[in-house]
Amino acid sequence: MAPASQAVRPAKKKPRVIGTTAWYVVALFVGAVMIVPLLWMITIGLKSGTAVFDIPPKLLPREWKWSNFVNGPKAIHFPRLLLNSFLITGLSVIGGVMTAMMAGYALARMRFPGRKLWFYLFVGSMLLPGVVGLIPLFQLYKSIGWYDTWLPLIVPAFLGGNPLFIFLARQYFLAIPYSIDEAAKLDGAGHFRIFTQVMLPLTRPAWLTMAILAFQASWNDYLNPLVYLYSSGKWPLSVGMAAFISPFAGKTPDWSYYMATNLLYMLPPLIIFFAAQRYFIQGLGALGSTNQK
Amino acid sequence: MSRNAGSDVKAAYLFIAPAMIGFFVFVGYPLIRSFYLSLTKYNGLTDPVFVGLGNFRRLFTTDPSFWPALRATGYLVVLYVPLSLVLGLALAMFCNQRFAGVRLVRTLAYLPVVLPAVATITLWKFILDPQVGLLNTVLDRLGLPTSLWLQSPKMAMPSIVLVMLWGVGSTMIIFLAGLQAVPTELYEAAKVDGAGPFAVFFRITLPMISPIMLLQVILQTTAALQTFNQPKILSPGGGGGPGFSTNVLMLGIYNNGFPTLGKIPQLGYASAQVWVLFVIIIAVIALTAKFSSLWTYSDSTSD
């Protein structure tokens, strides 16, 4: 079944009129729990450094320090870390999506010996916990001179680093009518042309979903860059931001600077989320139907 | 299935080659290598020295931090997984209703999931501050008891679970997809038969989403067993404190395998810890899958 069909919402009975108030109380509570911490962060980001430690805390800043959004980022060389994050994330998105789409195409639409076996191996490897690879891969990268470079963060994506994507791609390719590529084949198109010119346009929702998920995963990743990158000049924002607040040399972190910068760090995934909400829901809908295949 | 097979083979393997190489490098190799390393003494510089089960003996008998780590990890799983599933399902059922503003609630509930872990965890570190944090302030205003949260050995782990539960939207979204796949005729039939909300939930909703529940139990438990970011960022100095309260297995693995300056990495020893964790994860998956037939509903006509 195509993931897209998940978007159809079943008609459910309306809550009874008596319960409506209770209903909105719950809705309001859920909304508040999710949004208040973020609003709190914005106010901290706008307070002066000392106002942060007022007891009891004030909700709104006494003086609005918009300069925190300039001075905070300056304190950790934000532009450099931002660029690092964008490069690492951009490349791993391209790699992850490309590899998964190719593998998914082969698994769904080509006949070759070992097709079933490889499908089960890929699906099975979803269950392998990441922690098993931590030490051997660290040693491997170190021995080939990849330690303290971005390669361990990027190259695995090009090698099918996310088996879930392979699974999603295959599911999507299975849903496309075979008459389409039969026709293309009759016209003399090879697999490469069918894949790039027929399939990629048809599977846009699938690879957009993957690209969004891959962006999120890479942008948010903390453990891997923490393990593989030693030089602070090569850090992505995740490691830089965590270092920002870890108190070293007895210095307490400047929370208002930190929260202002934190907002900037959150901005790209936030923008993508609001721009592509539909895909988030659809993509994960496909995951939800995993067992119903 | 494509009819002109045979000629496909070469092309197919070209398409699948990157993922195949990836499978050998990122699945096969680490499995074998980390198992071998777990049987050695290895500092990453000189060659590994085979010590048999020595690392495991040390873990289970002399290491003062291993049992507390096991206990902390178990505590986290037992606290987090049921809460995450119950809250996630409740939220999904709530968001599956039709009322004005439901999209907004759904969006807000999912919002924390898309934000970077480092950003949200550090935000919570400040919210949980006993003196200037938002949580104690709100509790105090409401006349409710406050807490030292992360600074109290008793409350540190519940605080971490609280932070993790803020991301319950990830559980919700999968349940929501499952709920939306339940045929509406079933609910209509139940309504005609006069079934109450409890009967509908236990006789229709729960059985119909039981395969997704199974998936969720496995996903959430394996993820919880590998929790790293929250204790690393929230505990003082990243050491899993206060005391051993949030010293989960992943922290031990990280601190032994990638120690801070001046200490020698114990990669063999850390690999042994990895394998203990790995065996636990496999056991959880196997047990969940084995007993799943008792409580999951499967439609024998499909597939």
UniProtKB/TrEMBL annotation, chain A:
Where is the protein found, in the record's own terms? Cell membrane
| GO biological process, any | transmembrane transport
Topology relative to the membrane = Multi-pass membrane protein
The record's listing under Pfam families reads: BPD_transp_1
* Coiled coil spans: none
Q: Which residues form the ABC transmembrane type-1 domain?
A: 82-276
Please provide the record's keywords in A-Z order: Cell membrane, Membrane, Transmembrane, Transmembrane helix, Transport
* Spans traversing the lipid bilayer: 21-42, 81-105, 117-138, 150-173, 227-250, 262-281
Record bears the keyword NAD: no
**By its UniProt entry, which CDD domains does this protein fall under?**
TM_PBP2
Signal sequence span is: none
Q: Which domain of life is it from?
A: Bacteria
Q: Name one GO cellular component term.
A: plasma membrane
The protein's matches in InterPro entries, at most eight in alphabetical order, are given as: MetI-like, MetI-like_sf
Per its UniProt record, what PANTHER family does this chain match?
Answer: ABC TRANSPORTER PERMEASE PROTEIN MG189-RELATED-RELATED, ABC TRANSPORTER PERMEASE PROTEIN YESQ-RELATED
Family of the protein in this entry: Belongs to the binding-protein-dependent transport system permease family.
Q: What name does this protein carry?
A: ABC-type glycerol-3-phosphate transport system permease component
UniProtKB/TrEMBL annotation, chain B:
Q: What is its main location?
A: membrane
**What transmembrane ranges does the database entry give?**
12-32, 72-95, 107-127, 155-179, 200-219, 267-289
Task: Give every ABC transmembrane type-1 domain span.
Answer: 70-288
* Endpoints of the signal sequence: none
Q: Which GO terms describe its biological process?
A: transmembrane transport
Concerning its family, UniProt says:
Belongs to the binding-protein-dependent transport system permease family.
Q: What is this protein called?
A: Multiple sugar transport system permease protein
Q: Provide the species name.
A: Kribbella solani
Q: List the CDD domains hit by this protein, alphabetically.
A: TM_PBP2
Query: Which Pfam families does the record associate with it?
Result: BPD_transp_1
Q: How does it sit in the membrane?
A: Multi-pass membrane protein
Entry-linked InterPro entries: ABC_transporter_permease (IPR051393), MetI-like (IPR000515), MetI-like_sf (IPR035906)
- Taxonomically, the superkingdom here is Bacteria
Could you list this entry's UniProt keywords, alphabetically sorted. Cell membrane, Membrane, Sugar transport, Transmembrane, Transmembrane helix, Transport
GO cellular component, alphabetical, reads:
plasma membrane
Q: Which PROSITE patterns match?
A: ABC_TM1
Coiled-coil segments? none
Q: Enumerate the subcellular locations listed in this protein's record, separating them with semicolons.
A: Cell membrane
